[in-house]
Amino acid sequence: QVQLVESGGGLVQAGGSLRLSCVASGRIFSINGMGWYRQAPGKQRELVARITNTGTNYYADAMKGRFTISRDNAKNTVYLQMNSLKPEDTAVYYCNKDGQYWGQGTQVTVSS
Questions:
Q1: Quick check: 60 and 4 in contact, CB under 8 A?
Q2: Do residues 23 and 76 make contact, with C-beta atoms less than 8 angstroms apart?
Q3: Do residues 60 and 69 touch, judged by C-beta distance below 8 A?
């Protein structure tokens, strides 16, 4: 089993920044395949960014240049640095591994 625990969400004004963290535990062999998704009210869950199984980073187009995914292998932790936040970034952000395991989510609210 794999457990994912997110933290770092909160309320921020437009233009501000937040850093989310996701700590993985359990049967972890690699933190490749970990990523961030988000779900806004009334919308489908969407991919934000992920570390592919080859170790490269992938970003959804709307996040390129504003969000950065990074990793600390020793801590089994993946981070999402979010800059220049917009009200439309308001959502619950979820950590995911291998498309199978999900964290409980952390709320990000961006006020205008």
A1: no
A2: yes
A3: no
